[in-house]
Structure formats: C-alpha cells, structure tokens
Amino acid sequence: MNVFIITGTSRGIGEALAAQLLDDSHHICCISRAVNDKLINLAKEKNNRLSYHSFDLNHITAMDELFAELMDTIQQLPELHAIYLINNAGMLSPIAPIEHIDATGIAENVTVNLLAPMVMTSCFIRHTLALPIDKRIMNISSGSAKYLLPSQSCYSTSKAALDSFTKSVSLEQMNKPHPVKVASVYPGMIDTQMQAEIRSASRESFPYVDQFIQIADQGQLQTAEYTAGKLIDILLRFDFGSTVVIEEL
C-alpha cells in the first residue's frame, strides 16, 4: 500500500491530485479546511481508500495532533510500501504594494505558504523516522519565487523561502539511514481560483493585471488535471529528489 498525504484538496490542483491518485494500491489522506464531498464520493464509487482530515493550516501548533491522527490511520493499512507528502495548499493574497498590507495579511500568507509546509515536513519526518520504506515530500512552489512582479512580495518571498527550506532538508536527509527524498516544484500557470483572484485585482494594486487577463483569454493556462498528472509523474520518478528545485514540469 502506498500512502499519499495531500494538503489543499478542497479544489484545484489538490483535488485533481487526489482524484488521479485513487487506486486499489493507494490510500489517499486529504487535508483541507473544507471537506471535499466530491472526492469522498468518487473514492466510494471506485471502492478506493481515502480518508479526509478537516484542518486549518493556520493552526500550525496543532499539526502534531493531526499527524498522530494520520499515523493512526496509516498504521492500520496492510503492507505499507511507501508514504508521500504533497504540500500543495497555498494562497496568493494579499495582492498589493507592501505598504498597503497589514500584519494580519502578511502573517496569514507566510503561514499557509511557508510555515505550514515547514511544520508538516517536520511532523512527517519525525513520525516516519523508523520506517524503512520509500518516503518523499513534494513542495508545490511557484515561478514567482524566481520571476518577481510588483504587488506579490508576500507570495514570492514565501515561495522563495520554501525552495530554500527544501534545499536545506535535502542536505539534512542525505546521509540518514532511511532518508526522505524532497523536491520543490514550479507547476506553471494553471486555471485555478488563484489565477481568477489575480485577474480580479485592480490595476492600481497590480499593474500587470491586463497581461494575466490576456493569458487566460488566449487559453494559455494549464488545467488543474493536466498539472496534477505531470506532478504525479515527477513524484513517482525513480530519481525523485536528485533535482531539488524543479522549475519546469
């Protein structure tokens, strides 16, 4: 049995990842604030294993309890061969020059995009330390970590920091007896709620809004389903982790 723990499964890439990974030999652990009934029903229809864990990633100090719950579920599965964590959940807002963003907006963005994956990674490694199986963590980053635009300072900074964190963890795991392979991936521009959010920004708060509207109008955005398929291909490669920051799918 292969276990996939995925954050941000209420919609978008996370939902598509969970749906495509449903399989007789897989158990999918979904994590999001809102429960995705569509995924639960799909798993029931296919008679596949899926458990849903409603959790707000802003509550980072409660993640040890979440992982204890996850491990209770996982330890009951037959013949565990591999366990994977996909830190997918993220948020773009606030979209504005930094002087227009208050402390609450900055803290929420950095918590969801950076602190939550950091704590999830810590919990994952700690709770699977003694397991002599294939263990992998994929962090969903963004090209915004490298290619900067105005009014996205919180998002770009948190994603750049996520890449650095991934590199650091890769170094730490290098000589462990049962190492966790890690990689940070730029998924590209995808037709999700995040893209809709940026297209709805005012020109005053985000001067490049017209270019993003044009990209969508010209059909240049990837679908969540296409992106999820590519991400799964990367996660399951034999050499996953050999490239720590993957900039193209």
Structure description:
The protein has a single domain (2-188, 223-246), classed as NAD(P)-binding Rossmann-like Domain (Rossmann fold), CATH 3.40.50. With 249 residues, the chain is an alpha/beta fold. It has a 7-stranded parallel sheet with strand order 3-2-1-4-5-6-7, with helices on both faces. It has helices at residues 12-21, 37-46, 63-74, 103-127, 153-173, 193-199, 209-217, 224-235, and strands spanning 2-7, 26-32, 49-54, 82-87, 134-140, 180-185, 245-246. The chain is built from 8 helices and 7 strands, in the order βαβαβαβαβαβαααβ.
Helix % is 40-55%
**Main β sheet profile:** 7 strands, parallel
Order of strands in the sheet with the most strands? 3-2-1-4-5-6-7
What's the count of strands?
Answer: 7
Which H/E pattern describes the elements?
EHEHEHEHEHEHHHE
Identify the quaternary structure here: single chain
Summed up:
The chain has 249 residues and is an alpha/beta fold.
List keywords for this structure.
alpha/beta, Rossmann fold, 43% helix, 16% strand, 249 residues, 7 strands, seven-stranded parallel beta sheet
List the helices and strands and how they pair.
Blueprint: E1 2-7, H1 12-21, E2 26-32, H2 37-46, E3 49-54, H3 63-74, E4 82-87, H4 103-127, E5 134-140, H5 153-173, E6 180-185, H6 193-199, H7 209-217, H8 224-235, E7 245-246
Parallel strand pairs: 1-2, 1-4, 2-3, 4-5, 5-6, 6-7
Helix pairs in contact: 1-8, 3-4, 4-5
